[in-house]
């Protein structure tokens, strides 16, 4: 018997059901991961062999109380003003040896130059983690802002951008080597010296 | 005459559902690409804080995760409402963190053992005492690279309740 119609049509009505089944499986067994955050290095546990004497004026002390109040360099400070204060401290350029510090006030009671400036962060045991992260974010932001500015001036590209490309897996090695050189140069201009002293217990202050 | 009889009066044609599978597949592929398999169930509340100066954790195989937060509602009666540390699948004390890191480190490939990062996924309502204990433990086992994992956003949102 000659066929009058073409191949018979396959009923695809259940295809949607199958696809839904797969979709629901993936919905329940997977999560959307957050995989970004503030990268920090903890201080090693062994104390350094030779104790370096650091001048008090080269230390920017940040204290977070248990109620979330902020004491920066001895003054009660709003969190929103912290970044500016930290930046002013970092590029104060007290001894005049830093030729790229733009807004250095050359205050003799503040830091000598960016390579000597240290920010020290202390918090109470009862400080909320959210507050702590905000402070960390602002301090890292102060460094990043300064580094971005210099990178923008020297390489016409922001520092954070270069860093992000550097850690990407897809970046070819040749580009990485070139980036690394630039990144180290900027890092040497504003080395990140953010120390975290041991947390004080609430009873001791 | 039969020519007219064929025409049915008021019946609506069936809606074609042929594109439904395509739409569902599209959703499916979206979920397949943006999610990863769960490796452990979260037993703690884990509302991460927000930060803007963040860096991406690029290599998955070099990360050890520690969760901290108040126990979930279903565990609250058993473990209380104070923030707890979750290592793998169980609640732990701060003193277990060191052993946990050493164990996880031993599981990794030799080349990776020195470049591991500890990702701290901490609920923003936890307090720093617990975190300091963890940090002390991490220092003791020389796992110095940490990442305070956060959502991307304005850090000042953390201060609101």
Automatic annotation (TrEMBL), chain A:
Give me any GO biological process, just one.
protein transport
Gene Ontology molecular functions: transmembrane transporter activity
Family matches, as InterPro entries: ExbD (IPR003400)
User: Keywords on this record?
Assistant: Cell membrane, Membrane, Protein transport, Transmembrane, Transmembrane helix, Transport
For this record, an example GO cellular component is: plasma membrane
Topology within the bilayer: Single-pass membrane protein; Single-pass type II membrane protein
Q: What protein name applies here? A: Biopolymer transporter ExbD
- Taxonomic source organism: Aggregatimonas sangjinii
Automatic annotation (TrEMBL), chain B:
Report TM segments.
12-37
- CC terms in the record's Gene Ontology section: plasma membrane
The question of whether Lipoprotein is a record keyword is answered with no
Q: Which InterPro entries match?
A: ExbD
| Entry keyword set | Cell membrane, Membrane, Protein transport, Transmembrane, Transmembrane helix, Transport
Q: What is its main location?
A: membrane
> Its Gene Ontology biological processes?
protein transport
**Domain of life assignment:** Bacteria
Q: Name one Pfam family in it.
A: ExbD
**GO MF assignments:** transmembrane transporter activity
Identify its protein family. Answer: Belongs to the ExbD/TolR family.
PANTHER family found in the cross-reference section: BIOPOLYMER TRANSPORT PROTEIN EXBD-RELATED (PTHR30558:SF3), EXBD MEMBRANE COMPONENT OF PMF-DRIVEN MACROMOLECULE IMPORT SYSTEM (PTHR30558)
State the name under which the record lists this protein: Biopolymer transporter ExbD
Q: What is the lineage of its organism?
A: Bacteria, Pseudomonadati, Bacteroidota, Flavobacteriia, Flavobacteriales
